[in-house]
Design a protein that fits this description.
The structure holds three protein chains of three kinds. In chain A, 71% of the residues lie in helices and 0% in strands. Chain A is mainly α. Chain A has a single domain, classed as Four Helix Bundle (Hemerythrin (Met), subunit A) (Up-down Bundle). Chain C is elongated. The chains are: A mainly alpha, B mainly alpha, C alpha+beta.
Chain lengths: 202, 557, 349
C-alpha cells in the first residue's frame, strides 16, 4: 500500500479552526507547583506525625512564638507582585520596577525574620536539627520553605536586574505572570506551614 | 535550528569530523535525538542490570552455593533493582515518549527542548553516580561498595549505624539527581500534550499513546516528589543528625515505608502505562481495526492514575498496620484491578473480528496480553492481605513483579522497538531475527518466571544469598536459572538485529505498517522539523481518513 | 520468512504447554512432605484461615484466567489473516456500550466478593482476643538471631522457640509480641501463620495455635543486612507435659562444674561476657544470645550450623567461616583456650 503521503493534503487553513491552547509557560509552572506541593506535603505529614512524639528537649510551646509580622510581610509581597504585574500590563515599566523592588524587599524581610528566629532558637533555646524530633521536623519544614523563598528571590532579583538595564517591557508581562505564580505558591505554602507549625503543632 | 534531516552516520564519507558529530549529539535539544540518547543509555544499563541478575541466579542455582559472598550478593540485588527501574525502564520509556509524542500530535518538538536535554543528562549522570559507588565509596571491604540496602532502602538499615561508609549515599544521591531529571521530563510531557497539539486534535482525538503518557507524567510529578522528600529526610538523618527515621529517638521506621511506597506504587504505574501505550498503538494496526472503546480506555487510564495514589500500603500488609488500614488497602487494590482488567478486554475486542498479522511487534503484544493477565491475577492474589501475609516478601512477589515488568513492560517495549525502528532509522529490521529473539526470550521468560512462583509458595523469602537444602526449593531455583540464559541469548539476538538492520536493512519508507497516526505521515527518519507543514486533523486516525476518503473516521467517531 | 496468515500454532502450543507444566508442578507440591515450609500445608489456625481464603482466591482467579485465556486463544486463531485474504480492511468497530458495561459490572462484582471474603479473614486473624491460658512470648529480632523471652514463666532463650500443642477443644495458643533491637526483621513460619514484621519502636503481635507436634521451620523474611539469609527459625511444638519440662529446665541457672573451671575462666575474662548471658554467673551481656542452656538447642548461629562441638569450636574460632558478616567477632583465642572454652560451653545444658 502506498505510503507516501504529504501532510499538505491534510491541511485545512488553520484560521478556519478556532485553535487556542493554554500557554506552555503557565502549564509548565503549574506542573512544577504540583511537584513542589507533593514534596511539601510529605514534610508536613512528617511534621504532623511527629507532633508530641519527641522524647526530650525543648517542646514547641516552650520556644515557638508565631512570627506574625514577618508573615504579614511575606503575604503582602503576593499583593505587591500582583500589582507589579498589573502595572506592567498597563505599560508603566518604572512603576512596575517599584512594585517589584517592594516585593523583593518584603521577601528579604521575611528571610531576615526566619534568620533571627533560628538564631534565637539555636543559641538561646538550644534547639537544633539534631536535638529531638521537633527540631528535626521544624528545621526541615521551615528550612525547605525558606529555601524556596531564596530561589524565588534569586529569580526576582534577576528580573530586577533586567528591569534596571531596560530589558523588561510590556510584552514580557505574560512571562512575569508565570514567575508570579511561583511566588504565590511560596506564599500559600507559608500559610500551610504557619498553621501546622505555630497553630496546630503547639 | 538546522532544516536538514538528522545526519545519521552512514557508510559513505562525511565532510564533518567525528568531533562535530559528537558535539551535535551532546549539545542537541532535538526531541528525536534525545529520545535516542535515552534509549541507548538505557540499553547499556540493561546489559549491566542483566549481568547483575545473572550473578544472582548463578549464586542461587543450588543451596549453599559460594559463587559470590553474601556482601556481593546483597549489592547485586540492590543494584539490579535500582538500575533496572531507574536507569533502564524509566529512561527507555521517556526516550520513546520524547521521540514519538511531538510526532504523534503534529508538533515540531517538545514544549521545553532545553529542559528536555537537561533532564536526559541528569538521568545519565545519576546512573554514572550510582555506578561510581563501585569505585569511589569507602566501605569495609576494599575497593568500593555499591549500595546493599535493597532498592527500597528500608530504615533503619540505611542509618549511619547500620550502613557504614557511603554506599547508601550513592543510592540516595543518584536517585535524587535522576529524580529531578524524571520530573523535568514529566513537566515537559504535560506541557507538550496540553499546549502543542496540532489544529483539530482535541484531547479526545489524540492517540492513546499521548493520553497514557500524559497520565504517566502526572503520576511522575505527584509520585517522584515524595521520594525526593524522603531522600532529603534520609540525608538529614545521615549527615545532620536528624531523627526522621531514628527509632532510638522516637522516630518511625514505618514512616519511611509509607513515604517510599507512596512513591513506589504509582511508580509501577509510571512504568506500565507507557507499556499500555505501545500495546494500544500496535495491536490496532496489526489487527487492522481501531482500538475498541477509546473513551473508556481514556477513562480507565485516568481512573488508574487516581486510584494508584491510594493503594501504596499493600506493600506493607505485614508491617502491622491494624485491621482497618489493611482492609482499606485491600479495597483500593481490588478497585484498581477493575480499570486495568477492562483494558485487557478492550485489547482483546480490538483483535476480535480483525485480520491479525503475526509480525514481530504483534507477537510481543500477544505474549504481553497473556502475561499481563497472569501478572494481574497474581497481583489480585497479593492484594488479599491475609494471602499476602504468606506470599509477601517471598519469591512469589519477585515472580509477580517480574511478570509485570519483564512479561508485560519489556515485551511491549520489544514490540515498540520493532514497530518504530523503521521510523527512527529508515530501515526495516530482519523479521527472521526478530522472531528468533521472540521465541528465545519467550521460552527463557517462562522458564524463569513461571517456575519462580513455586519457591514462594513453598516458603522461600526474597533477598537471601543462599538457602537451605531440604525445603523443596532446589529444583525450581535450578530451572529459574536456566531460563536466564535463554533470555540472555534473546537479548543478544535483539541487539544484533538492531545493529545489522541499521546498516544492512532495506529502506523502510514512510509507512511500512500501513498505520494511521501522524508519525507515519513524515519521512523515515523524520526531518529535524518533523513536518514541512503542521497538519490539521479531523479524527483519531488522520491517515485512515486520507487513505479512505470515502469512509473516514470522523463520520463515525 | 513465515508467510502471512498462517496460524501461529507455535505461540498457542507453547502457551498451553507452559500452563500445563505450571499446574502440574503446583498441584504436585500440595503434599507437605515435599516442603516443610509449604504454605498449603497449614498446621495452625491463622495458617488455616489463610489457606481457606487462598483456595477461594485461586479458584476465582483461575476461572478468570481460563475465560480470558480462551478468548485470547480463540481470537488469535479465528481472526488471523488468511493466505487467501482479499486485501480489504475488516469492519471497523469503534466500541459497544453494552459489552463494555458488562465487562465493567462483572469484574466489579467479582472484586466485591473477593473483598468481603478477605475482610472476614483479616478480622478473624487480627482481632482474636487473647485467651487467659495463652502462652506469652516476646520475640526480639537482632541482626542475625532471635531472642525469646517468656516473661510469665521466667525463661530467656534464643533461636529455638518451644510452644505447647494447642488442642482444638481446649486451645492453648501462643501469643508472640514482636520487637526489634536493631533493624527490621520478619517472623515467618509458613505452616503456622502468615509473616509479621519486627520493627524497632513499633511493637507487633501475632499468635499461633499449632495442632500437631513437630519442628516447624521458617526464616527471617525482611532483609536485615548481610546475614539475613541465615537468620533461620525453628519452632518446636511439644505436648504440654514436655513443654512444661522444658520450661523448668530453662529456668535453672547454669550448672557450674569444677572440672571445667578453666574454660569458664576463659569465658569470663575474654570479651564473651560483654555480649552473652549465662544465668548464675557474672556473664550478663545482652547483645548476643543467652547461652545458659546452649546445649539444649539443636543448632547454633540461628540455624546456620548444627550444634556439635566441632561447629561450636569453629564458630568461636572464626564465625565468618560459618556465617560471614555475622556480628560475632573472631575471638583470637589460642587452640588450647578454644578447647577448654568449648568444653565449658558443652556443659551448659
Amino acid at each position: 500500500m502506498s505510503t507516501t503521503l504529504s501532510t499538505t493534503t491534510m491541511n485545512l487553513p488553520a484560521r478556519e479552526l478556532e485553535w487556542e491552547l493554554p500557554t506552555r509557560g503557565r502549564v509548565g509552572m503549574c506542573a512544577v507547583i504540583a511537584a513542589e506541593a507533593a514534596i511539601f506535603t510529605i514534610f508536613v505529614v512528617a511534621y504532623l506525625f511527629y507532633v508530641g512524639k519527641s522524647l526530650s528537649g525543648p517542646m514547641p510551646r516552650d520556644v515557638l512564638s508565631p512570627p506574625f509580622f514577618y508573615t504579614v510581610c511575606l503575604l503582602s509581597s503576593s499583593l505587591t507582585i500582583h500589582f507589579a504585574g498589573k502595572t506592567l500590563r498597563g505599560g508603566n515599566v518604572r512603576r512596575f520596577g517599584a512594585w517589584w523592588l517592594l516585593t523583593i524587599a518584603l521577601g528579604a524581610l521575611f528571610l531576615y525574620g526566619t534568620a533571627t528566629e533560628w538564631h534565637r532558637l539555636i543559641y538561646e533555646d538550644g534547639l537544633t536539627i539534631n536535638t529531638n524530633l521537633f527540631g528535626t521536623t521544624y528545621y526541615s519544614l521551615v528550612g525547605l520553605h525558606g529555601f524556596h523563598v531564596v530561589v524565588g528571590l534569586v529569580c526576582l532579583s534577576a528580573v530586577m536586574a533586567f528591569t534596571l538595564f531596560g530589558a523588561v517591557k510590556r510584552e514580557h508581562a505574560e512571562r512575569l505572570d508565570v514567575l508570579s505564580l511561583y511566588w504565590h505558591f511560596v506564599d500559600a505554602v507559608w500559610i500551610v506551614v504557619f498553621t501546622v507549625v505555630y497553630v496546630i503543632g503547639r | 535550528m538546522s532544516t536538514e534531516s538528522i545526519a545519521w552516520p552512514s557508510a559513505t564519507a562525511e565532510s564533518r569530523s567525528f568531533v562535530d558529530h559528537l558535539h551535535d549529539w551532546v549539545a542537541t535539544v532535538d526531541h528525536k535525538r534525545l529520545g535516542i540518547l535515552y534509549i541507548a543509555c538505557a540499553l547499556v544499563f540493561l546489559v549491566i542490570g542483566g549481568i547483575e541478575a545473572t550473578v544472582i541466579r548463578i549464586q542461587l542455582i543450588r543451596p549453599h552455593n559460594d559463587f559470590v559472598s553474601p556482601q556481593v550478593f546483597n549489592r547485586m540485588f540492590t543494584m539490579h533493582g535500582t538500575t533496572m527501574i531507574f536507569f533502564v525502564v524509566m529512561p527507555i520509556l521517556f526516550g520513546f515518549a520524547n521521540y514519538l509524542i511531538p510526532l504523534m500530535i503534529g508538533a515540531r518538538d517538545m514544549a521545553f527542548p532545553r529542559l528536555n536535554a537537561f533532564s536526559f543528562w541528569m538521568t545519565a549522570f545519576g546512573g554514572l553516580l550510582l555506578y561510581f559507588s563501585l569505585v569511589g565509596a569507602n566501605g569495609l571491604y576494599g575497593a568500593g561498595n555499591a549500595p546493599d540496602v535493597g532498592w527500597f532502602a528500608y530504615a533503619p538499615l540505611t542509618s549511619q549505624t547500620f550502613s557504614l561508609g557511603h554506599s547508601t549515599d550513592f543510592w540516595t544521591l543518584s536517585l535524587l539527581v535522576s529524580g529531578f531529571g524524571s520530573i523535568g521530563t514529566a513537566i515537559n510531557i504535560v506541557a507538550t500534550v496540553l499546549c502543542m497539539r496540532c489544529p483539530g486534535m482535541t484531547l479526545a482525538k489524540m492517540p492513546l499513546f499521548a493520553w497514557l503518557n500524559l497520565v504517566m507524567a502526572g503520576l511522575v510529578i505527584l509520585a517522584v516528589s515524595p521520594l525526593t522528600a524522603a531522600q532529603i529526610m534520609l540525608l538529614v538523618d545521615r549527615y545532620l543528625g536528624g531523627h526522621f527515621f531514628d527509632t532510638q529517638a522516637g522516630g518511625s521506621a514505618v514512616i519511611w515505608m509509607h513515604f517510599f511506597w507512596i512513591f513506589g506504587h504509582p511508580e509501577v504505574y509510571v512504568l506500565v502505562l507507557p507499556a499500555f501505550a505501545f500495546a494500544s498503538e500496535i495491536i490496532p494496526v496489526f489487527s487492522r481495526k481501531p482500538i475498541f472503546g477509546y473513551p473508556v480506555m481514556v477513562g480507565a487510564t485516568v481512573a488508574i492514575g487516581f486510584i494508584s495514589m491510594s493503594v501504596w500500603a499493600h506493600h506493607m500488609f505485614t508491617v502491622g498496620m491494624g485491621s482497618a488500614a489493611n482492609t482499606f488497602f485491600v479495597l483500593s487494590t481490588m478497585a484498581i484491578a477493575v480499570p486495568t482488567g477492562i483494558k485487557i478486554f478492550n485489547w482483546l475486542a480490538t483483535m476480535w473480528g480483525g485480520k491479525i498479522e503475526f509480525k514481530t511487534p504483534m507477537l510481543f503484544c500477544i505474549a504481553f496480553l497473556f502475561q499481563f493477565l497472569v501478572a494481574g491475577l497474581t497481583g489480585v492474589m497479593l492484594g488479599c492481605a491475609p494471602f499476602n501475609w504468606q506470599l509477601g516478601n517471598s519469591y512469589f512477589v519477585v515472580a509477580h513483579f517480574h511478570y509485570v515488568i519483564v512479561g508485560g513492560i519489556l515485551f511491549t517495549l520489544f514490540g515498540a522497538f520493532y514497530y518504530w525502528f523503521p521510523k527512527m532509522s529508515g530501515k526495516m529490521y530482519s523479521e527472521t531475527l526478530g522472531k528468533l529473539h521472540f521465541w528465545l526470550f519467550l521460552i527463557g521468560f517462562h522458564l524463569t518466571f513461571d517456575f519462580m512462583h513455586i519457591p514462594g509458595l513453598l516458603g522461600m523469602p526474597r533477598r537471601i544469598y543462599t538457602y537451605e537444602p531440604g525445603r523443596g526449593w532446589d529444583i525450581w531455583n535450578l530451572i529459574v536459572t536456566i531460563g536466564v540464559f535463554f533470555q540472555a541469548a534473546g537479548i543478544l539476538v535483539f541487539l544484533g538485529n538492531l545493529l545489522w538492520s541499521y546498516y544492512c536493512g532495506k529502506a523502510a519508507g514512510n509507512d511500512p505498517w500501513d498505520a494511521w497516526t501522524l508519525e507515519w505521515a513524515t519521512s523515515s527518519p523524520a526531518p529535524a522539523y518533523n513536518f514541512p507543514v503542521i497538519p490539521t486533523v479531523k479524527s483519531r486516525r488522520p491517515l485512515w481518513d486520507l487513505k479512505h476518503p470515502d469512509d473516514p473516521d470522523w463520520k463515525y467517531e | 520468512m513465515r508467510s502471512r496468515g498462517s496460524t501461529n500454532w507455535r505461540v498457542v502450543g507453547s502457551q498451553i504447554f507452559v500452563c500445563v507444566c505450571c499446574s502440574a508442578a503446583a498441584f504436585a507440591d500440595l503434599a507437605p512432605p515435599l516442603s516443610p515450609t509449604n504454605i498449603f500445608a497449614p498446621a495452625s489456625t491463622p495458617a488455616k484461615s489463610i489457606f481457606g481464603l487462598s483456595l477461594f482466591v485461586l479458584v476465582v482467579t483461575g476461572a478468570i484466567f481460563l475465560v480470558v485465556f480462551t478468548l485470547l486463544l480463540y481470537s488469535v486463531v479465528k481472526f488471523r489473516k488468511r493466505k487467501n485474504d482479499d486485501g480489504l480492511e475488516p469492519p471497523q468497530v469503534y466500541g459497544s456500550n453494552q459489552v463494555e458495561l458488562a465487562w465493567t459490572v462483572i469484574p466489579v462484582l467479582i472484586v466485591v466478593a473477593l473483598f468481603m471474603a478477605t475482610a472476614r479473614v483479616i478480622a478473624s486473624v487480627q482481632k482474636t482476643a487473647r485467651l487467659d491460658n495463652a502462652i506469652e512470648v516476646i520475640a526480639i529480632g537482632h541482626q542475625f538471631w532471635w531472642e525469646y523471652r517468656y516473661p510469665a514463666l521466667g525463661v530467656v532463650t534464643a533461636n529455638e522457640l518451644h510452644v505447647p500443642i494447642s488442642d482444638e477443644n481446649q486451645p492453648t495458643p501462643t501469643f508472640i509480641e514482636l520487637l526489634s533491637a536493631d533493624t527490621d526483621h520478619s517472623f515467618w513460619i509458613p505452616r503456622l501463620a502468615g509473616k509479621t514484621d519486627l520493627i524497632p519502636n513499633h511493637p507487633n503481635s501475632m499468635w499461633i495455635d499449632p495442632h500437631e507436634a513437630g519442628v516447624y521451620l521458617g526464616q527471617c523474611a525482611q532483609y536485615c543486612g548481610t546475614q539475613h539469609a541465615k537468620m533461620l527459625l525453628r519452632v518446636y511444638v511439644q505436648p504440654r507435659a514436655d513443654f512444661d519440662r522444658w520450661i523448668q529446665e530453662q529456668r535453672q541457672p547454669a550448672i557450674v562444674g569444677s572440672a571445667v573451671s578453666h574454660g569458664q575462666r576463659v569465658f569470663e575474662t575474654t570479651a564473651c561476657i560483654n555480649c552473652h548471658t549465662v544465668a548464675g554467673t557474672v556473664a550478663n551481656g545482652r547483645f548476643g544470645p543467652d547461652l545458659t542452656h546452649l546445649m539444649s538447642r539443636d543448632t547454633i548461629a540461628a540455624g546456620a550450623a548444627k550444634n556439635t562441638p566441632e561447629n561450636l569450636r569453629q564458630w568461636i574460632l572464626n564465625p565468618d567461616a560459618i556465617k560471614p558478616g555475622s556480628l560475632m567477632p573472631a575471638m583470637q583465642l589460642s587452640d588450647e583456650e578454644l578447647d577448654v572454652l568449648t568444653a565449658y560451653l558443652e556443659t551448659l545444658r
